[in-house]
Amino acid sequence: MELVLEAPSVADIQAVGAALGRHAAGGDLVLLNGPLGAGKTTMTQGIANGLGIDAKVSSPTFVIVQNYHGSGLDLVHVDAYRLGSLEEIDALDLDSSLDVSLTVVEWGAGKAEVLSQNRLEVEIDRPLGAQEGQEPEDLYEDAPRVLKFRPFGERARRWLADIAADCAAYVPRKDV
Ligand SMILES: Nc1ncnc2c1ncn2[C@@H]1O[C@H](COP(=O)(O)OP(=O)(O)OP(=O)(O)O)[C@@H](O)[C@H]1O
Ligand SMILES: [Mg+2]
Prior knowledge:
This protein has 5 helices and 7 strands, in the order βαβαββααβββα. By secondary structure, the protein is α/β, with parallel strands linked by helices. Strands 1-7-6-2-5-4-3 form a 7-stranded mixed sheet. The longest helix has 14 residues, at 154-167. Residues 7-10, 12-13, 34, 36-42, 59, 106, 141-142, 144-145 line the site of adenosine-5'-triphosphate.
């Protein structure tokens, strides 16, 4: 099953993230993909909220990995943007915390899949375009995002079913 949701606002993408966090189990892995400014970190703030973490999540661009502790599972938040290779992902030793945490990797496509065969891949689409005098990534900053979920493995399929049921009441689905 694939799931496609529309997130018109920051509150929406954070609500979807919170559902993801609420239904997470130790060992779960999420790869958040999408262009600059798509909303990967914004969605991770919602995920943290769903895990009962009070700290304000920010982009771990420079530290690469940030750990958060809350009332439930720990969150391991990774920004793989500056990592060039599988070896560099390996050197972070994410395996050691994976089983007891929810691991979220921004920019993980093509790099972080090796961490687990059970994982949820989320593609965040945002409209981009070219307009004179503006950087493409600055355009349409508030445009609705489209979230495409793809589960790998049995556990991720169940997780996604829980997320879909949870979100049904408040986020529009695009794939029905
Ligand atoms: N519907 C929406 N969903 C997510 N973000 C939105 C939405 N509407 C507006 N925004 C804004 O878009 C920006 C998204 O930035 P964010 O840092 O979350 O993106 P990112 O994908 O993590 O970027 P980077 O590639 O730099 O890590 C924020 O400023 C947020 O307020
Ligand atoms: Mg980010």
